[in-house]
């Protein structure tokens, strides 16, 4: 279980008060692969997972009704902890100004959750959109498989850029052939990487896997990510990992690289160091 720092109205108030300078970002990890950013004065949620469940080891930090400040909501794929119907529909109601981004195959899914067509952008890999002054590039993800269909790739990650800062949220993915080279197009300052790994037992029950902590370390080190944050390790007992293994291996293999093990609801600031 992840340690919880701030939650509820206190967390919302801290986000609203945050004023990162140009070329900087404040972020709050919310458990699993859910991240909250304050970037260019915009409040950005990525994969908000808020549904209460007895299976959760990290509780929801806020309710959808408390999220009245969202301006961008990015979803990486249609699994419950990434496109959470409870969160998406609730945020769409509570934050009528919010614009949503999702992979192209999930347009109908997002519309069914109450996201109006004019508030929704769906993307294919390598498509670029600028919203609220933030440039967003879709990066294909391989969640065990690519599973590309006629309507697009169901799994994506995103690179967000503003003020010289480049941030990568990997979504759920393995390290596919060509991913390090694709990420080499950016000088990445910050990245959120899943480390829960994969195995036969999980696959047999429909739990699709991600990078191991070793693979995530290699991706961070070989692409020169300045600050990496291991995620997707805390939420479910049968799909967890020890993030200190990531930290230890990174320090041994790439001592010039930095990482930060996140605490739920903790404000962290990162800046462009180019």
Structure write-up:
The protein is globular, with a radius of gyration of 17 Å. It contains seven helices and 14 strands. It has a single domain (8-254), classed as 4-Layer Sandwich (Metallo-beta-lactamase, Chain A). A hairpin with a 2-residue loop joins strand 2 and strand 3. The strands form two sheets. Strands 6-5-4-3-2-1-14 form a seven-stranded mixed beta sheet. The protein has a seven-stranded mixed beta sheet with strand order 7-8-9-10-11-12-13, covered by helices on one side. With 274 residues, the protein is of the alpha/beta class.
Measure the end-to-end span: 35 Å
Mean pLDDT: 97
Spatial strand sequence of the major β-sheet: 6-5-4-3-2-1-14
Q: What is the name of the CATH topology? A: Metallo-beta-lactamase, Chain A
Oligomer: single chain
| CATH structural architecture | 4-Layer Sandwich
**Count of distinct strands:** 14
CATH superfamily caption: Ribonuclease Z/Hydroxyacylglutathione hydrolase-like
């Amino acid at each position: 279980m992840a340690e919880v720092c701030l939650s509820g109205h206190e967390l919302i108030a801290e986000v609203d008060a945050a004023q990162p300078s140009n070329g900087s970002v404040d972020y709050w990890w919310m458990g699993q692969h859910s991240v909250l950013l304050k970037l260019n004065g915009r409040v950005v949620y990525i994969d908000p997972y808020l549904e209460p469940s007895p299976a959760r080891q990290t509780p929801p930090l806020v309710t959808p009704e408390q999220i009245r400040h969202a301006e961008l909501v990015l979803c990486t794929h249609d699994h419950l902890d990434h496109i959470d119907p409870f969160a998406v529909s609730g945020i769409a109601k509570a934050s009528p100004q919010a614009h949503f981004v999702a992979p192209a195959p999930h347009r109908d899914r997002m519309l069914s959750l109450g996201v109006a067509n004019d508030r929704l952008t769906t993307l294919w890999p390598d498509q670029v959109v600028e919203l609220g002054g933030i440039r967003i590039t879709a990066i294909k993800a391989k969640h065990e498989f690519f599973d590309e269909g006629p309507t697009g790739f169901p799994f994506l990650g995103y690179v967000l850029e503003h003020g010289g800062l480049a941030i990568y949220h990997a979504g759920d993915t393995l390290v596919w052939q060509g991913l390090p080279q694709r990420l080499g197009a950016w000088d990445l300052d910050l990245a959120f990487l899943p480390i829960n790994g994969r195995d036969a037992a999980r696959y047999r029950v429909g739990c699709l896997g991600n990078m191991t902590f070793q693979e995530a370390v290699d991706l961070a080190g070989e692409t020169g990510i300045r600050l990496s944050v291991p995620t997707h390790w805390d939420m479910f007992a049968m799909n967890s990992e020890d993030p200190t293994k990531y930290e230890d291996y990174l320090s041994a293999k790439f001592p010039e690289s930095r990482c930060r093990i996140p605490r739920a609801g903790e404000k962290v600031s990162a800046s462009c160091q180019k």
